[in-house]
Every structure is written in structure tokens, then in C-alpha cells.
Write a structure and sequence with these properties.
260 residues, mainly alpha, globular
Length: 260
């Protein structure tokens, strides 16, 4: 096993285990306020990594910039269509949170059971694994940034999934085990991404654009719109500051990595 592949596997394992562990802790203790803060920070972090690292790296390659632009557009539209088809989903809502949903929202989301959530998550986590693989094939610093960005989004995302599974009748232990099994598809995605992109290195800039598109789509379609629904200044100011904190966190991490 090459060092790069080992880093990809390790990064995906750590991302899955840490994000699920923290999500379970937050879910089972119903710390909704903290989840909302994580959502704000992750929005800033995802946008920063996508717009100031992944996209510049792809456009500085030998790939045609117009083609990259079309790939970016196609990827964003593709994520939209996948979400409309319910093959992927993004949720961080839960009963008792600050979002204005009717009582029983999560029970309704759970529908006939939690299995569609788990299947959708498997696709989502596989894609995250490919994103991390593409970043590590660029360089280890990009890999670390991508791993942090994925974790930042996955923690609140998994909290929402845990609450839906519990409302669907899963016991806490069963929900955690099945979430862990579903999350393991990230490792498979990382391995598949490594071998495909290693064999066809010319595809790497396009993979980075798709990775950036996924971060941008998640931020603009799911995370930031939730904040826009809250009108009071007392709610809005802390949210804006937390988004900025996410941007600053990403900038500090990038600066620290580039210093080495």
C-alpha cells in the first residue's frame, strides 16, 4: 500500500469515526444549540476550502478553464438532481432545535423507516471518500483541509440522521452501528478514487472541481438558507460571526499547513 493510499484510508476512517462519535454524543444528549453553531461554522469552512483552495488548484492546472467551468456547473446541477431524486440528502434538523418545524417533523421525515436514510448516506459518504482521495492526490495539505471540511459538515448532518433514525424506531445502539456501516462507504470511495485518479491523473483537476462543487452546493442549498429564515438581529449576528469564524478557521489551518 502506498503512503498516499494509507493516508486516504486513515483520513476517511478518522473522519467517519470522529464525526459519528461526536454526532452521537450531541444527538443522544440533545444539544441542539451546539449543533446549530456547528452548522454556521461548517458553512464558512466549506466555502473557504472550496473557493480559495480546491477551485484555484484545479484552474491552475493544464486543464481547459472553460471545460472546468462547465464541469462545475454540471456538478452543482447534478447534486441538485440527486437530492431531488432522494439519492442524497442533507439534514441537520431535530426535535427541539431552533428551526421552526411542526411537532413530529423528524417522525415524518423518517417515513416508513430509516433505511432510505442509511442508503442515501452510503452514496453521500462514498462521494466524500472520493473528495478526500482527490485532495490527497493533489498534496497532503489539501487532503487535510478536505478531511476537516468533510468532518465539519458531517457532524451536524449525522446529528440530523440520528434523530430521524431514532424517530423511525431504531434503538440508540442500532442507529450508531448502522450509521457506522453506512459511513464505511467513505473508505471504499477513498480507495476507488485513489485508483481511478492515480491511473488517469488528467482527471484530477475535474475531480477537484466536483469536490468544490459539493462543498459549495451543501453550503448554499442547505446550511446558509437555514440561517436566512431567522429574522431577529439577536439571532442573526451570532450566526454571521460563526460563519466568519469558519472562514478564519480554514484560513488559519491553510496558513499553518503552507508554513510547513
Amino acid at each position: 500500500m502506498s503512503a498516499t493510499l494509507a493516508f486516504i484510508v486513515l483520513a476517511n476512517l478518522l473522519s467517519t469515526v470522529i464525526s459519528l462519535g461526536l454526532a452521537a454524543l450531541l444527538s443522544f444528549r440533545l444539544l441542539g444549540g451546539l449543533v446549530d453553531r456547528l452548522v454556521c461554522v461548517s458553512a464558512g469552512l466549506l466555502l473557504t476550502v472550496a473557493l480559495t483552495h480546491l477551485l484555484p488548484e484545479s484552474f491552475h492546472s493544464e486543464a481547459d478553464p472553460h471545460t472546468l467551468g462547465w464541469v462545475l456547473l454540471a456538478a452543482i446541477l447534478g447534486f441538485f438532481m440527486l437530492e431531488k431524486a432522494a439519492l442524497i440528502h442533507h439534514t441537520h434538523h431535530h426535535e427541539g432545535d431552533a428551526h421552526r418545524h411542526e411537532h413530529g417533523h423528524d417522525a415524518h421525515e423518517a417515513g416508513q423507516g430509516g433505511w432510505p436514510i442509511l442508503i442515501g448516506d452510503a452514496f453521500h459518504n462514498f462521494a466524500d471518500g472520493v473528495v478526500i482521495a482527490a485532495a490527497f492526490l493533489l498534496d497532503w495539505k489539501a487532503g487535510v483541509l478536505a478531511t476537516l471540511a468533510v468532518m465539519a459538515h458531517e457532524i451536524p448532518h449525522e446529528v440530523g440522521d440520528f434523530m430521524i433514525l431514532l424517530n423511525a424506531g431504531f434503538a440508540k445502539k442500532k442507529a450508531f452501528v448502522f450509521q457506522l456501516i453506512s459511513g464505511s462507504s467513505a473508505v471504499l470511495g477513498g480507495i476507488a478514487g485513489y485508483f481511478v485518479l492515480e491511473a488517469a491523473a488528467s482527471l484530477l483537476p475535474y475531480a477537484l472541481v466536483v469536490a468544490a462543487a459539493s462543498f459549495i452546493y451543501i453550503s448554499l442549498s442547505d446550511l446558509l438558507p437555514e440561517m436566512m429564515r431567522r429574522k431577529s438581529l439577536r439571532q442573526s449576528v451570532p450566526e454571521v460571526l460563526l460563519v466568519v469564524a469558519g472562514v478564519v478557521l480554514a484560513a488559519v489551518v491553510m496558513g499553518g499547513l503552507h508554513a510547513h
